[in-house]
Amino acid sequence: MSSEQYPLVKAFLAGSFSGTFSTVLFQPLDLVKTRLQNSPATFINGRHGTLSMLSIFTNIVQQEHIKGLWRGMTPSITRCVPGIGLYFSSLDYIKSHYLEGKTPTALESVTMGFCARSMSGAILIPITVVKTRFESGMYDYNSMVSALKHIYRTEGLRGMTCGLVPTLFRDAPFSGLYLMFYTQTKQLIPKELINSPYTSPIHFTCGITAGILASVVTQPADVLKTKMQLYPTKFKGLWSVIVYVHNNHGVQGYFKGMVPRMLRRTLMAAMAWTVYEQLSKKLGLK
Known about the structure:
- With 286 residues, the chain is mainly α.
- Helices cover 75% and strands 3% of the residues.
- A hairpin with a 2-residue loop joins strand 1 and strand 2.
- Belongs to the mitochondrial carrier (TC 2.A.29) family. SLC25A38 subfamily.
């Protein structure tokens, strides 16, 4: 295929391939993050505290063995691979039709990322619900298909889309902020280095920097999303879960699971963009 043929298909394939490896590799971090966000308060040395990332990791290995760290792998791949593919193909469409090859400004980067992630996030929200419940260990679903059937039968459309609002508040701003930080950071790098043998490490470093900044801003929405998807009948809406987290955990409750999520999202996004940039060149997108 020439570089002009099927650009959206090529962008989708490049994004999907880049997402597959990072999704599998960093799934344990996502699992630990979900368990942390759902962990009850503990009483340690006369003070209230929460279970640590290491203690949850150790507990999973002891009770579920090493393979337990990849619990929820099927819905994760089902969500992330086409999701990342849709995200990158949407970005490519927006760039080619509205920016005509020019470098996007910071505001344009945020808008592009917001729109691209909103589309994929809304389409794949039922898989996100199943993924969260698999990772929590609270639900005994036999498979992803049976889980979807059970949720639809017992909870209806509301159960299939629970947590959609905080999911969009998490993913769309994250993607927009990440893309802004990523493109702006790349512009600070001299062009001779971008085109040098060090291009992959440079892309990876830019991705890590962007991921850290975007993760911190969007962490509260991730906590709210997890609570709504694990306890669909407990909360009437977004405001009720906000009040619940604040009353039970305080301000720090909105940042539970931030370390594993930051590690996963940062490394995953950095790797996805690095692989995507390389595949894009080979497929003639750049």
